[in-house]
Amino acid sequence: MNRAFREYFGIRDEQFIGKDIFALPIRRENAEVHHNADLELLKEPGSKTYEVRWVKDDGSICCELVKKATITGPDGEIAGIVGLLMDISEQKNMEAEV
User: Fold this and answer.
1) Contact 83, 68 (CB under 8 A)
2) pTM of the model
């Protein structure tokens, strides 16, 4: 977990490392979107890109671009999922104004 991720979610490493998406301080329905995407990747390894729009606890709307991919271990089995999360809220707000 990098600094930007920690700041974005307002958490420390020990609050999330080794846990699942439901440990993040986000609404359950938002966590379920990410969890379901992970389950799809585990069924069909590869990569996946999707956008998520959600309401933060403070009422502000956030838009994210999420890119995830499976990681294969030396035995050829899925060893995990790596992900990139990009806040595209500003871009979406500008698009809405046009």
Assistant:
1) yes
2) 0.79
Within 1-94, strands assigned E span 47-55, 61-72, 78-87
Tell me what pLDDT residue 60 has.
79
Let me know how long the chain is: 98
In the three-class reduction of DSSP (H, G, I as helix; E, B as strand; rest coil), residue 84 is classed as: strand
Name the phi and psi angles at 14, rounded to 5: -65, -15
Residue 19 pairs in a beta bridge with: none
Structure tokens at 69: 């991919």
CB neighbours of 19 closer than 8 A, spacing ≥ 6? none
pLDDT, one tens digit per residue, over 29-83 is 888 999 999 999 999 999 999 998 877 767 778 899 999 999 999 999 999 999 9
DSSP 36-62: HHHHHHHHS-SEEEEEEEEE-TTS-EE
